[in-house]
């Protein structure tokens, strides 16, 4: 959208992508100025309000997300995808991280909006994640040239089945170990800082005096744990090249414990204050890459499969299978192929009517 008056209605598609839900927009349908755009999105999602009662948001970070998609000018890429995390109880919009869950819906959305011509049978869409510049290819069924959301693929944390969306990530440009070390000591705790698409700090749950099998709601009520995690995050930010991270959504913190259900490792991941009821795709990719590096935190408790096989990352509502290869032969580990199967579903396609700008947001 070019300059001019801010719209009072915007074309929008609500989609579930992986274990998240978000509003998908064409970039051309939104204001071009970031500040004006973000204000519109806050009002459209119903923020700031812990219930998001006056908008599309679902009162949780996992359901207060936005994908902005546009045709790419790069001949090697089909579409550009900007992820925006919309604050729930706060008036903040952050683009400092990717979202691998909403990524699962970007390819189908691009076909639905005519940005990519579908093939008869299966379509692959090359996607650039504008938040970091990293690349991925999403492949999904398009029988008869139409997106088919039905299928037999299951992912933990989502009821029922849907069509598989296979996402393959190209190796990123960021170092897998952003601090240059396999282990660091932050706030008196031994950790491994990893970035395989999502800056993530790996921490042994036992080092924080918890088991790692607790219910996420119970962990969120633990004030002492929250204080400790905050200290670790604040120290990790500058070391990982993220700068000051107070009030930001990265890095994620993933607490690790031995697997309980035959997988590779059990996780409890903070995003960054709320405990994820599952685990994000890119956080899982970082956990998996870290576990492939000799000496990293968590490797001693993990049940690692053979090289080339998928790692099963356990989380509070099930598991996520992910392929993550790391070449550790050189002076610094280098990420190789990372791939995962997710699902997505179109929930509605229509128009969102944001709360008028002059109307004050509710306080509770």
Automatic annotation (TrEMBL):
Signal sequence extent: none
Short name of any one Pfam family annotated for the protein: PrpF
Keyword set, alphabetical order: Isomerase
GO molecular function, one term: isomerase activity
InterPro entries: OMA_tautomer-like, PrpF-like
Broad class of enzyme this protein falls into: isomerase
Source domain of life: Bacteria
Family: Belongs to the PrpF family.
Protein name: 4-oxalomesaconate tautomerase
């Amino acid at each position: 959208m070019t300059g001019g008056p801010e719209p009072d209605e915007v074309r929008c598609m609500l989609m579930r992508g992986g274990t998240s839900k978000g509003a998908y927009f064409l970039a051309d349908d939104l204001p071009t100025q970031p500040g004006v755009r973000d204000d519109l999105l806050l009002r459209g999602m119903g923020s700031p309000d812990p219930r998001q009662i006056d908008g599309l948001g679902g009162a949780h970070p996992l359901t207060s997300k936005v994908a902005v998609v546009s045709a790419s000018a790069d001949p090697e890429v089909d579409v550009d995808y900007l992820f925006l995390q919309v604050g729930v109880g706060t008036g903040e919009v952050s683009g400092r991280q990717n979202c691998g869950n909403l990524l699962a819906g970007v390819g189908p959305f691009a076909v639905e909006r005519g940005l990519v011509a579908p093939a008869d049978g299966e379509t692959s869409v090359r996607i650039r994640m504008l938040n970091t510049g990293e690349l991925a290819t999403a492949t999904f069924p398009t029988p008869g040239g139409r997106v088919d959301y039905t299928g037999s693929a299951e992912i933990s944390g989502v009821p029922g089945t849907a069509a598989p969306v296979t996402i393959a990530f190209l190796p990123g440009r960021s170092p897998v170990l952003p601090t240059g070390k396999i282990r660091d000591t932050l706030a008196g705790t031994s950790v491994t800082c990893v970035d395989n698409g999502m800056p993530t700090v790996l921490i042994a749950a036992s080092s924080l005096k918890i088991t790692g099998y607790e219910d996420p709601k119970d962990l969120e009520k633990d004030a002492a744990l929250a204080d400790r995690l905050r200290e670790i995050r604040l120290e990790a930010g500058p070391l990982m090249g993220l700068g000051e991270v107070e009030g930001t959504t990265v890095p994620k913190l993933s607490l690790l414990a031995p697997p309980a259900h035959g997988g590779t490792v059990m996780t409890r991941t903070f995003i960054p204050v709320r405990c994820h009821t599952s685990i994000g795709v890119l956080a899982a990719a970082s956990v998996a890459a870290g576990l492939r590096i000799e000496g990293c935190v968590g490797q001693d408790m993990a049940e690692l499969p053979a090289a080339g096989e998928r790692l099963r990352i356990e989380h509070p509502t099930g598991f996520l299978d992910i392929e993550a290869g790391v070449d550790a032969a050189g002076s610094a580990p280098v990420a190789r192929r990372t791939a995962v199967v997710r699902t997505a579903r179109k929930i509605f396609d229509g128009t969102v009517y944001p709360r008028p700008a002059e109307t004050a947001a509710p306080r509770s």
